[in-house]
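Sequence in, structure out. Go.
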Amino acid sequence: MAGSGSTGELEPDGLSVDRNPVGGVTVVTVAGEVDHRTAGALRRALIPLDPAPAPRTVADLSGVGFMDSSGINVLIAAHQAHEPGGWLRLAGVRRPVLRTLEMVGLTGLLDCYPDVRAALDA
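Output:
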C-alpha cells in the first residue's frame, strides 16, 4: 500500500517494514522473518510515533513466515502502547505465525483479520 505518507525501512537482516496512513489508521506492512535480529524494526514500526490518544494501527503480517518470542514481545508492547482507547489489529497472519500466537494466547488479546481491508472495516 504505497502512499505519499509512506515510510519504508529495510533492515540488513532482510525484514521489510512499510508504514502508510490510511484514513486515520497507520497500516504497517511487514515482510520477512521476525526474530531477535529484526524485532527492533518491527518495534519501531508498531509503537505509535504520535503520543496522541487512541492510536489505531493495522499490522499486515501476510509477508511474515516466521516469528519467534522476540516478535511476540513486540506485539505485546505495541498492544500496550495503543491503550487506552486505541487499538492494534493484525491482518493476513499466516498459519505458522498464527499458530505461535495461538500457543501463547495472543489471539485472545489481539484481533486477527484475514486481510487489511477487513481489519480497517471492522
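Check: Helices lie at 39-46, 69-81, 95-103, 116-121. The chain has four helices and six strands.
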